[in-house]
Amino acid sequence: MDKFNFDDKLNSLERNYITFKRLLLVSMLGNLVLVLILLTTINKEKIILVPQVAPEDKLWIAQAQVSNEYLSALSRNMVDLMLSITPSNVEAQHQELLKLIASKYQADLKTKLSNISKVIIQNNISQNFYIQNIKIIHGKNIVYINGSLNEYIDKTLSSTTNQIYKLSFMVGNYSVQLVNFELVNEKDDQLRGLGL
């Protein structure tokens, strides 16, 4: 091998080595930036659910927060499970409802729901609740639902009343659980300014 070719190859190897060092440095800096981004986004994850029926409404839940759309959909489901019942579906509805209740409230509510189920079955009572308005208290995970409750005895309409329910939720660890479901008097001060 002559000296000219040897020097040429040596220069080429040196240039390749310098290029390699530069690429390695850029790669290391890129990995460092990615690690820093990863460290700053830990526990800031958000799960977004896009329902098939209304893709414009984005339902999301984060570590300790939930979207208003998610609370609205969950509240509708809870009210339906609690108030739209018949003698044939009341026990199944209440079992589904218990799955959505915070564990420390389940035992007490299970007894109350069991008593309600017995009365409904014995007296052949059916009822349905038609939602007219939903108000969400932003940041407090409280939902007020106004609607019409129709009650039937032996398939005959016995009463229709306007009712307001308050649902309180606990949000944590990517989970939303019901902690309170109560009937609210329409003259109660907590409803002032809500437009229900």
Descriptive report:
By secondary structure, the chain is α+β, with helices and mostly antiparallel strands. The chain has two domains: 1-42; 46-191, Roll (Nuclear Transport Factor 2, Chain: A), CATH 3.10.450. The chain is 43% helix and 31% strand. It has helices spanning 3-41, 68-83, 90-98, 103-123, and strands at 46-49, 59-62, 125-137, 142-153, 156-172, 175-184. It has a four-stranded antiparallel sheet, covered by helices on one side. Strands 1-2 form a two-stranded antiparallel ribbon. The longest helix has 39 residues, at 3-41. It is elongated and about 110 Å long.
Provide the CATH top-level class of the largest domain: Alpha Beta
Structural class: alpha+beta
Number of helices: 4
Unreliable runs: none
Strands, count: 6
The CATH topology assignment of the largest domain is Nuclear Transport Factor 2, Chain: A
The radius of gyration computed from the alpha-carbon positions, rounded to a whole number of angstroms, is 30 Å
CATH homologous superfamily of the largest domain?
A: VirB8 protein
Shape: elongated
What percentage of residues falls in helices of 4 or more residues?
40-55%
| Average pLDDT | 85
Number of domains: 2
Separation of the first and last Cα atoms? 94 Å
List the helices and strands and how they pair.
Blueprint: H1 3-41, E1 46-49, E2 59-62, H2 68-83, H3 90-98, H4 103-123, E3 125-137, E4 142-153, E5 156-172, E6 175-184
Antiparallel strand pairs: 1-2, 3-4, 4-5, 5-6
Helix pairs in contact: 3-4
Notable traits:
196 residues; Nuclear Transport Factor 2, Chain: A; four-stranded antiparallel sheet; 6 strands; elongated
